[in-house]
Amino acid sequence: MKISLHELKEKTSMSFDVDYNQKIKGNPDILSIQPAKINMDIKHIDASLELDIHVDVNMDLACAKTLKPVPYHLSFDEIILFGQDEDADFPLTDPLEISDIVYGYILSLKPYVIYHPDATHVSFEETKSPHPAFADLDKIVKK
């Protein structure tokens, strides 16, 4: 969602939903995503713009072992500073790509590894039994 600076000058807060279904097609970790609810408080500070954002999004992530969908709710608050200073998080351009920035935060804040409740019973490696000639060595070493 592109928001022009002219549109932001007249407002102190905004709320909108963003659908990221097209963006997750290249991400195998996120199986599905509901529209993200974004609330922003807007502050104009000299030649900078500060956005205090709150994001709520529900998604299904792939289990690291079984690839089954695992429901996950992500909620976060972030203060983003736009400007030309060194302290700014992003440059102040017109228009601002708020949805792309929020999507970057979603990708960085979602868990890298998540497990389905059934995944604890899954094992992909077979236990190997030693050669019968070496079976008794295991008992000696553990003493």
| H/E topology pattern | EHEEEEEEHH
Radius of gyration: 24 Å
Structural class: alpha+beta
How many domains? 1
Question: N-to-C terminal Cα separation, in Å?
Answer: 66 Å
- As residue ranges, the low-confidence spans are none
What's the number of helices?
A: 3
Mean of the pLDDT scores? 84
Shape: elongated
Textual characterization of the structure:
This protein is α+β, with helices and mostly antiparallel strands and 143 residues long. It has one domain. It contains three helices and seven strands; from the N terminus they run βαββββββαα. The strands form two sheets. Strands 2, 3, 4, 5 and 6 form a five-stranded antiparallel sheet that branches.
Produce the secondary structure layout:
Layout: E1 2-3, H1 5-9, E2 13-18, E3 30-33, E4 36-45, E5 48-62, E6 69-82, E7 96-97, H2 98-109, H3 135-141
Short précis:
The chain has 143 residues and is of the alpha+beta class.
Which features does this protein show?
143 residues; alpha+beta; five-stranded antiparallel sheet; two-stranded antiparallel ribbon; 3 helices; 7 strands; 17% helix; 37% strand
